[in-house]
Specification:
Aminopeptidase, Alpha-Beta Plaits, 4-stranded antiparallel sheet, alpha+beta, 2 domains, 6-stranded mixed sheet, single chain
C-alpha cells in the first residue's frame, strides 16, 4: 500500500470508528437523531448541500445530501444507505470497536455504516456539480432494518427521478460480490379466536385457539418450495393465558421470501385459501408484502458492466452474487424499473452478529470505486 492509500485508509478507518461508537438502533429515536447530527457534522465544511426530512417523532430524519447546482432538476444517481442498526444500545460492550489483524469489529460496522462512509467520502471529493456526469443524491434513512415504513414513500419519490440507484449495503462475503437480484419479503399473520373455559371443569365448552393455530403452523411451513425459491418460516407464536384455561386467542407471524411477483401472487392466493379447521373458531388471515422482489434485468446487467469497469480502474474485480434471500431498500427502487445495483459497501462478514467486522485493507480500493463510479456514470 503506497503512502497516499495508507493515509486514505487511516482517515476512513477513524471516521468509521467514530460512527460505530455512536450506537444507533432502529427503535431509539434519540440515538438516531444523534447519529444524523454526527453525519452532518462530518460534512459541515463541504460545499455539499443537505436537506433534512422529518418523518416522525419516533425515528430520525432522512438525510438528503447532494451536489446539485441551483435549479438542476435532471434525473441523476440515487445512492441509498441507512444509518440505523439492529444492535441495541450497549452492544459495544460485547463487540467493542477494535482491530484484530485486518478485521475492524463493531456493531453495525459492516451493515452498513462503513458503506455509507465510503460513498460519502467519494461524494465529498465530488462536491462541485461539474465533478460528476450526473447529479448525485445520497439519501440516508433511519429505519431500513425495520422495513423502511417511514422512509419508503421518500425512497420511491427519489427513485422516480433517478437514472440509476446504487446501494451501500455490504458486499457479499464471497469475494466482495455485489447484488443484482433479491427476493421479495413479507409477513403472514394468522389469528385464531376461540372460546375460553375452565380446563378442568368445563373443558368441553372451550374452543382451543392454540390447537387451531397448531394446524396452520404446519400448513404454512409446507408452503416452502425450494425449487421455486419460496420460503415460509413461522417465527413467532403468541397465545393463551394460564395452563388451566382453554385458550381463546392465539396468533402466529411467519416470514416469507419470494423470487418474483408471480410467485408472490401465487403464495398470496394459497394463504388466502386458509380456513379454520374447527367450525366454532374464527380465523383472521393477513398477507403483507413489505418489499417486492428485485429482479435482475437487462438494464441492471448494463449498469453492472459499467460498474465493473470502474472497479477495475480502482484495482479489483467486481463480481456478481447469486440472488439473495435478504431484502433491502434496493427492492423498492428496482420494482419501479430503475436499474439498481446493491451490495456496493465494504468487504467483511458477520452482519447482525457480535462478530460483525470489515476488512480494513479493502477500504481504499472500495472508496476509489465509488469515486470513479459517481464521477463517470452517465
Amino acid at each position: 500500500m503506497n503512502h497516499q492509500a495508507h493515509e486514505l485508509t487511516e482517515a476512513l478507518r477513524q471516521q468509521i470508528i467514530r460512527w460505530v461508537e455512536l450506537e444507533s438502533p432502529s427503535h431509539d429515536a434519540d440515538a438516531l437523531r444523534a447519529m444524523a447530527a454526527l453525519i452532518l457534522d462530518d460534512i459541515k465544511d463541504s460545499p455539499l448541500r443537505v436537506e433534512q426530512i422529518n418523518v416522525g417523532e419516533d425515528t430520525g430524519p432522512i438525510l438528503h445530501i447532494h451536489n446539485r447546482a441551483d435549479n438542476d432538476s435532471r434525473s441523476g444517481i440515487l445512492v441509498l444507505g441507512h444509518y440505523d442498526t439492529v444492535h441495541p444500545i450497549g452492544t459495544l460492550t460485547q463487540n467493542p470497536c477494535r482491530q484484530e489483524g485486518d478485521k475492524l469489529f463493531g456493531p453495525g460496522i459492516y451493515d452498513m455504516k462503513s458503506g455509507v462512509v465510503l460513498a460519502l467520502s467519494a461524494l465529498k471529493a465530488l462536491a462541485q456539480p461539474q465533478a460528476t456526469q450526473l447529479p448525485v443524491d445520497l439519501v440516508l434513512v433511519p429505519d431500513e432494518e425495520t422495513g423502511s415504513h417511514y422512509s419508503r414513500e421518500y425512497i420511491e419519490k427519489f427513485a422516480k427521478k433517478s437514472v440509476y440507484t446504487l446501494v451501500c449495503e455490504p458486499a457479499r462475503v464471497e469475494e466482495g460480490r455485489c447484488v443484482t437480484a433479491r427476493k421479495g419479503t413479507g409477513n403472514i399473520f394468522i389469528t385464531a379466536h376461540g372460546r375460553p373455559a375452565h380446563a378442568g371443569i368445563h373443558h368441553e365448552k372451550g374452543r382451543n385457539a392454540i390447537e387451531e393455530i397448531a394446524h396452520h403452523v404446519l400448513a404454512l411451513e409446507k408452503l416452502t418450495d425450494y425449487e421455486r425459491g419460496i420460503t415460509v418460516s413461522v417465527g413467532v407464536i403468541k397465545g393463551g393465558t394460564t395452563s388451566n384455561v382453554v385458550p381463546a386467542w392465539c396468533q402466529i407471524k411467519a416470514d416469507f421470501r419470494v423470487p418474483n411477483a408471480e410467485m408472490a401472487q401465487r403464495l398470496e392466493q394459497q394463504v388466502q385459501q386458509i380456513k379454520a379447521i374447527h367450525p366454532d373458531i374464527r380465523l383472521e388471515v393477513e398477507f403483507k408484502l413489505n418489499r417486492p422482489a428485485m429482479p435482475r434485468t437487462e438494464a441492471t446487467a448494463a449498469l453492472l458492466a459499467q460498474c465493473q469497469h470502474y472497479a477495475r480502474q480502482a484495482g479489483f474485480e467486481l463480481k456478481e452474487a447469486p440472488m439473495t434471500g435478504g431484502a433491502s431498500d434496493a427492492n423498492f427502487t428496482a420494482a419501479l424499473g430503475v436499474p439498481t445495483l446493491d451490495g456496493l459497501g465494504a468487504d467483511g462478514n458477520g452482519a447482525h452478529t457480535l462478530n460483525e467486522h470489515i476488512l480494513v485493507s479493502t477500504l481504499a480500493q472500495r472508496r476509489q470505486f465509488w469515486l470513479h463510479t459517481l464521477a463517470q456514470l452517465h
